[in-house]
Amino acid sequence: MSNSFIGEIDWFAFxxxxxxxxxxxGRTYNIQSYPALFxxxxxxxxxxxxxxxxxxxxxxxxxxxxxxxxxxxGTTVWQAGTTAxxxxxxxxxxxYPPHSHSLNVVAGTLTTGVAGGVFGGFSxxxxxxxxxxxxxxxxxxxxxxxxxxxxxxxxxxxYLVLLPAICWDGLYPDFP
Length: 176
Known about the structure:
- The protein has 176 residues and is mainly beta.
- It contains 1 helix and 11 strands.
């Protein structure tokens, strides 16, 4: 028996589970075998609540505290057992804030004799194959092409890996 409270999660810097603890890996256990732990966890983390219950699954997860926090769309209530987040994320065009790109063009006539050999002030990559002898620019709109591959990018904060384990053989916590 340890001095830890039943239901307490401890983090270990070694790679084995001490006596009186279970790995926080989401496994289910029989309620009759671990009644004290079940009375604290219930079916918050899984199981049917009649014959089985589960411990929290912290494998490759970070922990967020219980409570109410403001979010971008109002207030978020963080309850025990809530899971969220993703290791990778793909951003779509609808998620970018509205914005525009502009190109200021002066009305007039350009010729191929522009300094530096760049037609109309555009980079060589945007040049026509054969520049015209002259171009009349009036009310010309510029539309930039979309770019990107659409792949997911890493969404992980810096982290340190430790072994989380929940106590099942300890002191039953007092409630106020």
